[in-house]
């Protein structure tokens, strides 16, 4: 096998090419939004449908009902991705390789993941290699904002925007990103059950078996944000391909914690200590005062665990895609506006509505935002809304599109 021609290298080349066309982007911001909740108007795209995933079924069968509904939509996305790949390497050899070689190259995935992906491939008729690529894809290109707040009574809320950070296929008709748009109809809310009882709830993209956003009612909430670092995920994937399989895929560990951890402390311990394939930020909230943290991970170790401390005035934590002790990339500062709007809200007035206002303020809301999730662990409330970001809005092709992909490159 020649690593130099692996499909992952191809994805990298796409990122390089995207980066090469980057232009200068003026930061685009607006005043903190007010009264955007309940969601309506031009930034609200629609509701997200609920599906039940029965964990009592064998992994191969769990996703059938959902995938029968979404097969055609998954194919649209897979085709958009293929078009991108084929535009860079027109021979079609890359996709042939993904279909024929990728599954054996990557070998077996742990736990239920292998069988779940096989089941999804069979029911949709999409080759397993493409389903695997689709699953790996999210390990690399998700830009996000996550926030945990604590009110004066010690009550916690957790919110997040899921931004899909890859600049491919600009649609000139309506100024949107093809992949971001393709992901909206794939967005689903999932109620994972055992014995007909909820184990956890999550928002995800049909066909993806890892989880990036979810909560366990009464116990904890968890979101994952991409982290770019020199010792990045590409090395981890290479090690995996070369047979060193002692590390976890980041979307898979998040799923395992949501499924099997039984407390905030246990989740925190696993997310802090397990060896990972890629760096990441885990944003974890619990069910009582003080239980909220951002875990900054290298592949082997946690660099930092930053916790709520309301008594000292730290009544929220915010994470985008940068280490908290470093400045964000100046073209991509979503952190300062999020903090500014939280400061203006004040701890007295924090609520789902206030959190949704913050997550609706540009550039926290941007062209790549697919959905917004709001979670209240103790009250068991879980809401996800599809988003749009009508012009003027940052993340626009004409205003310097390549910057997020360039950040990806820094992580190589
Ligand atoms: C933009 O156009 C694409 C392709 O026609 C469509 O799928 C997408 O929903 C549109 N997006 C918006 C926000 O109008
Ligand atoms: C779950 O509920 C369905 C219908 O309500 C029932 O047929 C089934 O036996 C239940 N399963 C379990 C494991 O309790
Ligand atoms: C959760 O734990 C069960 C029982 O140990 C195991 O079979 C399953 O694979 C685990 N789930 C995940 C997602 O790791
Ligand atoms: C909060 O979580 C702990 C486990 O960390 C659990 O024992 C406790 O019952 C939970 N509290 C509530 C009110 O659900
Ligand atoms: C928010 O408030 C904190 C505490 O007063 C302050 O340290 C921080 O600079 C403020 N951030 C912004 C972006 O306004
Ligand atoms: C907080 O809410 C109260 C009651 O709705 C309102 O009077 C007050 O102005 C709000 N404070 C801020 C800083 O928005």
From TrEMBL:
The reaction(s) this protein catalyses: an N-acylsphing-4-enine + H2O = sphing-4-enine + a fatty acid
CDD domains given in the database record: Ntn_AC_NAAA
Residue ranges of domain Acid ceramidase N-terminal in the record: 46-108
Enzyme Commission designation: 3.5.1.23
Alphabetical UniProt keywords: Disulfide bond, Glycoprotein, Hydrolase, Lipid metabolism, Lysosome, Secreted, Signal, Sphingolipid metabolism
Catalytic residue list: 144 (nucleophile)
Keyword DNA damage: no
InterPro entries per the UniProt record, alphabetical: Acid_ceramidase-like, Acid_ceramidase_N, CBAH/NAAA_C
GO BP term, pick one: regulation of steroid biosynthetic process
Name this polypeptide is given: Acid ceramidase
Species this protein is from: Oryctolagus cuniculus (Rabbit)
Chain's gene name: ASAH1
